[in-house]
Design a protein that fits this description.
The structure holds two protein chains of two kinds. In chain A, a hairpin with a 1-residue loop joins strand 2 and strand 3. Chain A is mainly α. The radius of gyration of chain A is 20 Å and the shape is globular. Chain A has a two-stranded antiparallel sheet with strand order 1-4. A two-stranded antiparallel ribbon of chain A has the order 2-3. Chain A contains 15 helices and four strands. Chain B has two domains: 190 residues, 3-Layer(aba) Sandwich (Rossmann fold); 165 residues, Rossmann fold (3-Layer(aba) Sandwich), CATH 3.40.50.2300. Chain B is built from eleven helices and 15 strands. In chain B, a hairpin with an 8-residue loop joins strand 14 and strand 15. The chains are: A mainly alpha, B alpha/beta. Chains A and B meet through helix 1, helix 2, helix 12 and helix 14 of A and helix 1, helix 3 and helix 4 of B.
Chain lengths: 330, 417
């Protein structure tokens, strides 16, 4: 177990290093897409903490991306704040705002489970969307807010490669932090809640508090994703907070494999690749994306990260059905 | 085993990205026009009209703009502003376009304008957000609008409503920036000549059931002004008629545009709207366009088709004057804005804020035969023409620009209770 875990880390680190090395030497549009996918991946991973490790399917994760992004955009365009070294302060604020919003929403949502949790998070997410859409004086309503420049502190982030490395660094740190989190005793108890909450409660765990804290942590990472997203996209609009953005994040996590962190990243890259790259080549990209979703659900209940597992199962003579179909939260 | 499987996925992903990553070099006499339209999603049909209009013109001239071979690259914005930006950047970075055009919603226009540069200018045929060519113009030196501002048809229309003797009008409009600007412009003009807007109701964008809004319409109003878009345009007149409305109904151009008109029924006959184009414009030029368009795409052209056809024509005209050589972005904008055009929608020139000065047509929905088609259909018959209307209409430009952009609460509803 330990050995395979170490091997896994090495593979992921190698792939990430390769991405960091190769992407900047590609076409500048690919750099842009990779940056977008990485920034969004942080949101998907934050959702995976809830979905894959705690067994809570949230449909409102875009709300945290939204508050982080709107905070960044409003501070930058109204007060010129966050465009120098104070960018780092905005990062902290973005995380704080995401976490604070999650702390409020968590009070309402955590008491529910299953479909009810889904509905409550959906409703809360739509509240944030409603605010973004209707609070014209602050958010610019439907038109959104344009960020006309990226921060500059010694290094100039207007340059796409530089900015790619910044987002990559944030992504790598987030991945590491979340990995440490889910491997910690706290993370293990979350997995316990996912598998059987009642038993955890009988064992004396305050499961509500555990879930609440996980929810807040996910919100914080969502806020961070928002700060980066605002500068990546250059525009913040209600589209970032709308239900489909939350659903996208959920689909990416499931596509890659929930409960694996890195699966969500793969999911994000595939979806962004299809939606924003394949769509520039062929008009029928939606069918491809649809087929990928359907085939994954049918044949890979564990997501794309389940592929190596399946191969191993096929090779070994005695397949272990318990390991094969492991959709968390069910 | 697990390790090698994973690294294969990773490498495959990377390889996939790299395989497609080649820049497209441009020939000396090639004009690369990027075009951004929602070709998937809920606005896909509008997006099709936009692309078809542009494409029809290109087909007519065989992609030859005065010697320059036009490469027309369509990208799907999916109706989302940040996808529009990503696609525009693809067009700039990868296809090295000299200009990009398109963008449907006001939000797309606002999102696209800041990424225009002197190397890749932004031509705006559809997105009608007022401030792009008004209060915020100075931020965007590399844009030019070939379409219209949302409030442009509303200014003469408000005057027209006064001339009809309407005193009090109740307004119902989609709750977003475009709605505020169309209704705001109408209110300013109408109240300027002595009328009163006695009510403003804002159903959310995409409302299909107007049941909650119809009973609250003021009974003492002489007429109802509506501003609907997309499926709302179809539902509102139907439900209004079903509620027994006897008042005259007038509205913004998109409420009765040819994009939705063929799907409407007799309930809209007699409704009056204002826009810079009508497919029923009775000129030989337009008759030919409608017939050609209909033969090719099987539907009557909407203003979305016309404005893009006309935009292609304008770009062609500038290129012709430069013998097919791209004059550079800033020079192109300068030359284009100095020209006068004879277009499908009538004569068009530009004001000093890079927005068209053009005819505004007051149109009444009628069921009749036109252009030799043997079936009776709904057409937007032009009943009055206001020639050469600028985006400021009858108002003084300097004073107009001092007021804030039209919004939900501007102009304030003085006569609402």
């Amino acid at each position: 177990m330990l050995k395979s875990q170490r091997a896994k880390i090495i593979v992921v680190a190698t792939v990430l290093a390769a991405v960091a090395a190769i992407v900047p030497s590609t076409n500048s549009f690919v750099i842009l897409l990779a940056t977008r996918a990485l920034a969004f991946s942080i949101l998907v991973m934050s959702l995976d903490i809830l979905l894959g490790f705690t067994g809570l399917a949230s449909l409102g994760q875009a709300a945290y991306l939204g508050v982080g992004a709107y905070l960044t955009a409003i501070l930058a365009t109204r007060y010129g704040f966050g465009l120098g070294f104070d960018f780092w302060l905005v990062v902290v604020l973005g995380i704080a705002v995401g976490a604070a919003l999650a702390a409020v929403f968590g009070l309402l949502a955590i008491r529910a489970t299953g479909v009810y949790f889904l509905m409550i998070t959906l409703a809360l997410g739509q509240c944030v969307w409603g605010l973004a859409y209707r609070w014209n004086s602050l958010t610019g309503g439907d038109n959104g807010i344009n960020l006309r420049e990226r921060p500059r502190f010694g290094i100039d982030l207007a340059h796409d490669v530089t900015f790619f490395y910044l987002v990559f660094a944030f992504f790598a740190v987030s991945l590491l932090a979340m990995y440490v989190l889910v491997r910690s005793p706290f993370g293990q108890s979350l997995a316990g809640i996912r598998e059987r909450e009642l038993r955890m409660r009988i064992l004396g765990y305050n499961t509500w508090l555990h879930k609440y804290i996980a929810f807040i942590i996910a919100g914080g990472f969502g806020g961070l994703a928002g700060v980066l997203w605002a500068h990546t996209a250059g525009i913040v609009s209600p589209e970032n907070v709308v239900l489909t953005t939350s659903v996208d994040a959920l689909l990416m996590a499931v596509l890659g494999g929930a409960g694996t962190l890195i699966g969500g990243v793969i999911g994000a890259f595939i979806v962004f690749g299809m939606r924003e790259y394949l769509s520039t080549i062929v008009p029928w990209w939606q069918y491809v994306l649809g087929a990928v979703y359907v085939l994954t659900i049918f044949y890979l209940p564990g997501g794309l990260m389940g592929i190596p597992e399946r191969i191993r199962q096929r090779r070994s003579s005695s397949p272990d059905p318990k390991k094969l179909v492991l959709l968390p939260g069910t | 085993m697990r390790n090698s499987g994973r690294s294969k996925i990773g490498l495959g992903l990377l390889g996939g990205c790299l395989a497609f990553a080649g820049a497209v070099p441009g020939g000396a006499d090639e004009l690369r026009i990027g075009y951004i339209a929602p070709t998937t999603g809920i606005f896909a049909q509008v997006g099709k009209d936009m692309v078809d209009g542009f494409q029809l013109y290109l087909d007519e001239v065989k992609n030859d703009f005065g010697g320059a071979q036009v490469k027309f690259i369509v990208e799907d914005e999916q109706g989302k502003p940040d996808t529009a930006v990503t696609k525009a950047r693809k067009l700039i970075l990868q296809d090295k376009v000299q200009m990009f055009a398109g963008g449907l919603l006001a939000s797309s226009g606002y999102a696209l304008a800041p990424i225009s540069t002197s190397e890749a200018i932004y031509v705006i045929p559809v997105s009608a957000a007022d401030d792009l060519t008004q209060r915020q113009l100075s931020k965007f030196p590399y844009i030019i609008r070939t379409g219209w501002t949302s409030s442009q048809p509303s200014h003469p229309f408000g005057q027209w409503a006064c001339d009809q003797g309407y005193k009090k009008i109740a307004a119902v409009g989609a709750d977003y920036a475009f709605g505020y600007e169309v209704i705001g412009g109408f209110q300013k003009a109408f109240e300027n000549c002595g009328g009163q807007i006695v009510q403003k109701i804002w159903p959310p964008l995409g409302t299909k059931d107007f049941g909650p809004y119809l009973p609250s319409l003021r009974q003492d109003a002489d007429a109802i002004f509506t501003l609907m878009v997309g499926p709302m345009s179809l539902q509102f007149p139907k439900q209004l008629a079903a509620a027994g409305n006897k008042k005259p109904v007038i509205g913004g151009g998109t409420s009765y545009d040819e994009f939705v008109l063929p799907s409407m029924g007799d309930e809209v006959i007699g409704h009056v709207s204002a826009l810079q184009y009508s497919a029923a414009l009775d000129t030989p030029k337009n008759a030919e366009f409608v017939q050609k368009y209909r033969a090719k795409y099987g539907k009557v052209p909407s203003y979305y088709s016309e404005t893009n056809y006309t935009t292609a024509q304008m770009i062609h005209e500038v290129l012709k004057r430069n013998n097919g050589k791209w004059p550079g972005g800033p020079e192109f904008i300068k030359q284009l804005s100095a020209l006068k055009f004879d277009t499908l929608r009538g004569p068009v020139s530009f004001d000093d804020m890079r927005n068209p000065v053009q005819n505004i047509y007051i149109k009444k929905v009628e069921r009749k035969k036109m252009f030799g088609y043997d079936k009776e259909e709904l057409w937007n018959t032009v009943i009055k023409t206001y020639p050469n209307v600028s985006q400021f209409g009858q108002f003084d430009k300097a004073e107009f620009l001092k007021q804030p952009v039209y919004g939900r609460d501007f102009p304030p509803c003085k006569f609402c209770e």
